[in-house]
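Ticket closed. Logging final result for Amino acid permease.
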Amino acid sequence: MAEDVAGAAGTRRFTGLGHERITFWQGVAIIFGANIGAGILSLPYGSRTGGFPALVIALLVAGFLTTASMLYVAEVALRTDTPLQLSGLARKYLGEAGSWLIFAGIVINGFGALIAYASGGGQVLGELLGIPELAGSLLFYVPGAVVVWLGLKATGRSEQAITIGMVALIAILVGWSVLGPGIDAANLTYLRPYFIVPIMNLAVFAFIAQYTVPELARGLAQHAPRVLPRAVVAGMVATGFVLALVPFAALGMMGPDGITPVVTIAWANELGQAAYYCANVFAVLAMLTSFWAIGLTLMTNIFDRFSWPAGGSPLHRAMALALVVVPPFLIAALGLAGFVSALGYAGGFAGAIMSIIPVLMLRQARRRGDREPEWKAGWVAHPVVQVALVVVFGLAFLYSLLTIAGLVPQGWA
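Final structure:
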């Protein structure tokens, strides 16, 4: 059951969520599902200017730094007796200001994604099944909301099952590309360093999954605390591999001039309609797994931020779920999904906050945490890594601001 923990100021008490047991592979699937959304299908187009080597460099740098940030959160969670979400951990170690900042980052990033999934899921299902887009959105949202309502254990099991299907579909598409039309090495070896900057910005926000780590801690820390960092690393490695694999196949087969903004169209042109359906089913599954992970973490952060009794009140649980799923659905259903672009820019703010706050939380938790953890971040928490993390994510935020102002150099936008 949940328990009360004193806040940083010692004047307010807030409620932690109860433990729910998950497995290592379910933890990996939650990380992978949160990261791999439909946006992966636009990554080949976004990386075509700089080339595949530029994408690999960007994924390695962004992936390492984001993994470091997630491992900081993992150590903070293991130093804390009560299973708290990011907003609760921030309140415990950084006070109300830090808690509200991280909560704002989670809400901005999460709502932007959920609005995009409400719109995109409806569009794809509408086209695949020949039904109205609104019906497609409802068909997408019902299993999404049900799994989020059922909680961490149901989310872990669902993520694990669907992730297997996603990996199978990607393997089919990549194998088809390699063994069918084939890969042209020249399409994968050109490098234009000038364009690494915009690709790095894409990569930074392809890995934003720090908010899922407290959920993994809630499911692993009690019975397998040393498994927590392994699940984080495995989930991020799997994410990086798949984020590189799709552009590898698409760019390698079609080259920069043949890539379309959404790679499903290019695949259909080269491989036929079967590939189009295969890629779009993957897109739906990718959006669904991201919906589950993001929706669950949004709901549990609402519990933490507003001190709601998550374990014992169906009313509060229903209220939190409604706050998570209803606004994105209505925005998409009313045709206001262009609002996502504004939230996408604000995602730069979310990324900057979610890089800085974990660094500050780790430092405070090492000074005044509740307990000695079974695992520590070690060399990954070296000050050089912490500074690099803050600088890279801060520059990504600056890039977003310059994009809004129309001040980025030619070809970077």
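The longest strand covers residues 4-6. No further action required.
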